[in-house]
């Protein structure tokens, strides 16, 4: 995971995303690239169709959002002593950063540009499923083909030393676990959690543990009965009980529409996780 993409905004949630990105970069000597994340013109009009915004005002607002995002990103890197990487840098430092200032507006850009990165880091979107932060996350999950590290509301102090794999036997979970392998190789403890009644047809957690063992990775399979709690509640409760600092979770085994209407494990974790979550679809 040598290349990390961080869509940057000037808001309180951004600090946790930057802290999570730095923790990830420090594990692999990565380059963190930021770009200004701001709505496309159509998004801004849709948010407030009666505002009567002129194109000049929209462009001015867009430029100001980009300036503030870059200022926060650069200030964070300076505070933590992270050097800027340039094309002329003969030997890259252990951890470095770059800024993509010419990125276009629109929250879907992360999905296309993210395809050339090893991981994308975003702040947790919360419970509002029509928010622009959710649009950004879904673009990253569905369009990039890359894993997304979702930072919790409060900055994490550690990352991937104690990992919970939320195993539901699905293709999405298998893909996410494969993306997580570089982190799993560095983890001190790994728990493979299966929640009864919240799986699809596929290999068991014990079978995953055997495969990881062959790869030189020790993991403990655990199966629990959720009782009256949902699978999402059980996953978060178990992660807290074990003191985990990362959940590895496949996103949207059930369809997004079904989760919007009826709820689901992905939706619950996105709304309530207090620790970093690595997701992929």
Topology (elements, then pairings):
Layout: E1 3-8, H1 13-28, E2 31-36, H2 41-47, H3 55-79, E3 96-99, H4 109-113, E4 119-123, H5 132-143, E5 148-151, E6 162-166, H6 171-179, H7 181-184, E7 189-195, H8 205-214, E8 220-224, H9 231-242, E9 246-250, H10 256-262, H11 265-272, E10 277-280
Parallel strand pairs: 1-2, 1-4, 2-3, 4-5, 6-7, 6-9, 7-8, 9-10
Antiparallel strand pairs: 5-10
Helix pairs in contact: 9-11
Brief overview:
Helix content is about 40%, strand content about 20%.
Structural write-up:
Helix 9 (231-242) packs across helix 11. The chain folds into two domains: 3-151, 3-Layer(aba) Sandwich (Rossmann fold), CATH 3.40.50.620; 162-280, Rossmann fold, CATH 3.40.50. The chain has a ten-stranded mixed β-sheet with strand order 3-2-1-4-5-10-9-6-7-8, sandwiched between helices. Helices cover 41% and strands 18% of the residues. The protein has eleven helices and ten strands. Strand 4, helix 5 and strand 5 form a beta-alpha-beta unit. Mean pLDDT is 89; it is low at 257-263. It is α/β, with parallel strands linked by helices.
CATH level-3 fold name of the largest domain: Rossmann fold
CATH superfamily of the largest domain: HUPs
Q: Give me the strand/helix succession.
A: EHEHHEHEHEEHHEHEHEHHE
Determine the structural class based on helices, strands and strand pairing.
Answer: alpha/beta
Order of strands side by side in the largest beta sheet? 3-2-1-4-5-10-9-6-7-8
Give the strand tally.
10
CATH class of the largest domain: Alpha Beta
Nearest-integer average pLDDT: 89
Whole-number count of domains: 2
Round the Cα radius of gyration to an integer and report it: 19 Å
Q: Indicate the proportion of strand residues.
A: 15-25%
Shape label: globular
Q: What is the helix content?
A: 40-55%
Uncertain segments of ≥5 residues (pLDDT<50)?
257-263
For the termini, the CA-CA separation is 18 Å
Major β-sheet profile: 10 strands, mixed
Counting copies of identical and different chains, the oligomeric state is single chain
- For the record, the CATH architecture of the largest domain stands as 3-Layer(aba) Sandwich
């Amino acid at each position: 995971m040598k290349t990390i993409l961080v869509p940057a905004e000037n808001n309180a949630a951004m600090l946790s995303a930057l802290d999570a990105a730095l923790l990830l970069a420090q594990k692999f000597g990565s380059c963190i690239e930021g770009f200004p994340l701001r709505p496309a013109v159509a998004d801004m009009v849709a948010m407030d169709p009666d505002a009567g915004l002129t194109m000049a005002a929209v462009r001015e607002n867009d430029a100001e959002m980009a300036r503030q995002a870059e200022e926060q990103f650069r200030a964070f890197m300076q505070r933590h002593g992270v050097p800027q990487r340039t094309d002329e840098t003969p030997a890259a430092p252990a951890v470095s950063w770059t800024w993509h200032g010419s990125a276009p507006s629109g929250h879907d850009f992360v999905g296309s540009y993210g395809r050339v990165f090893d991981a994308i880091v975003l702040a947790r979107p919360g419970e509002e499923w029509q928010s622009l932060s959710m649009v950004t996350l879904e673009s990253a999950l569905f369009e990039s083909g890359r894993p997304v590290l979702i930072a919790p509301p409060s900055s994490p102090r550690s990352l991937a030393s104690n990992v919970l794999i939320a195993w539901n036997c699905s293709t999405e979970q298998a893909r996410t676990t494969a993306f997580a392998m570089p982190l799993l190789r560095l983890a001190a403890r790994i728990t493979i959690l299966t929640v009864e009644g919240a799986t699809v047809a596929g290999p068991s957690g014990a079978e995953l543990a055997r495969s990881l063992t062959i790869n030189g990775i020790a993991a403990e399979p655990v199966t629990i009965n959720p009782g009256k709690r949902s699978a999402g509640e059980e996953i978060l409760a178990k992660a807290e009980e074990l003191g985990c600092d990362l959940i590895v979770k496949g996103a949207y085994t059930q369809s997004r529409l079904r989760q919007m209407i009826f709820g689901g494990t992905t939706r619950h974790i996105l709304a309530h996780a207090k620790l970093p979550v690595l997701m992929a679809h």
